[in-house]
Write a structure and sequence with these properties.
The complex is a heterodimer.
Chain A (H helix, E strand, L loop, with lengths): L4 H9 L3 H23 L2 H18 L9 H20 L7 H4 L21 H4 L3 H13 L2 H12 L4 H8 L3 H24 L2
Helix pairs in contact in A: 1-2, 2-3, 2-4, 2-8, 3-4, 4-9, 7-10, 8-10, 9-10
Chain B lengths: L2 H7 L4 H12 L2 H21 L7 H25 L1
Classes of the chains: A mainly alpha, B mainly alpha.
Chain lengths: ~200, ~80
């Protein structure tokens, strides 16, 4: 029977390197996806993965277990990716907030009469054009929104888990999630209207 | 603002959930909006939940082991010195 995260962490904290490697194997795919979603460049995302786990390894003895290890790993990943982005800053932000829908102070807005997206997502995903649109829209989302969307909609964390990982309140997670989904939805809606 | 998130997460209070559900039954634009909102999440997941390169694990373990070995060497030299 595989060890739990808590068991692996406890062993790793005593210097059991194979236990640490097991922990790495358990999370490396999700860490890579989050890093790639933030950084966009595979080679650089891999560097973020390396730095993340090195950081985790160096500090694992200080992990007290107040939160889930997954939250800590995602938080380190997010911080490492954000630092990498700050260093690079080669991509100026096309602010979708400026170009996209207008929000009021509380995040509400008027929605245009919705288009009927009659084509099923399963069919749509095969379209290279649509895939590129989603990737570009994600890449241009403000980082704080992108992180929440990646953790919630791509990795499937609960709102509470996202909040714990990013050090946010649940209402803030919901607000950012809603806003980021609306931004992406608006881009997709525009695409479908013109099909 | 968070109503649609809570509705879809089924974290609304029962009465509020029923109210929203009842509204949805008689409001086709809301139905279309919620449908497109859900599909947005689904599409994001399908496009972005990519498998990492198969060599990722091997390269990562090699990197971490090399860092560990380097740290041990430095530590060993420091102790001997």
């Amino acid at each position: 029977m595989p060890m739990t995260d808590v068991e692996l962490v406890k062993k790793a904290q005593t210097g059991d390197y194979p236990a640490f490697e097991d922990l790495v194997r358990r999370y490396q795919d999700r860490v890579y996806r989050l890093a790639l979603g933030m950084i966009q460049v595979p080679a650089e995302a891999e560097e973020v993965v390396q730095d993340t786990f090195l950081n985790i390894f160096k500090n694992i003895k200080e992990f007290r277990g107040d939160a889930a290890i997954s939250s800590w790993i995602f938080r380190v990943t997010a911080n490492t990716a954000l630092m990498a982005l700050r260093r690079q800053r080669r991509k100026p932000h096309l602010s979708l907030e400026d170009a996209g829908p207008d929000f009021s102070e509380d995040g509400t807005r008027h929605v245009q009469e919705p288009t009927d997206w009659t084509i099923k997502p399963n069919e749509l995903v095969l379209s290279g054009e649509l895939k590129e649109l989603i990737q570009t829209t994600m890449a241009n989302l403000p980082e704080k929104y992108r992180l929440v969307l990646l953790l919630k909609d791509v990795e499937g964390l609960s709102n509470e888990e996202v909040a714990e990982a990013l050090g946010l309140t649940v209402p803030t997670v919901k607000a950012r999630l809603h806003r980021s989904r609306l931004i992406v939805r608006d881009q997709l809606d525009h695409y479908f209207r013109n099909q | 603002m968070g109503l649609v998130v809570d509705y879809l997460d089924r974290t609304l209070a029962a009465a509020e959930f029923q109210d929203v559900g009842a509204h949805m039954h008689r409001c086709p634009p809301c139905v279309r909006f919620v449908d497109s909102y859900c599909k947005t999440s689904t599409l994001c997941q399908r496009v972005l939940k990519v498998p990492p390169p198969v060599e990722l694990g091997g390269r990562l373990q090699a990197f971490l082991r090399s860092q560990l070995a380097m740290a041990c060497n430095v530590g060993g030299r420091a102790k001997r010195g």
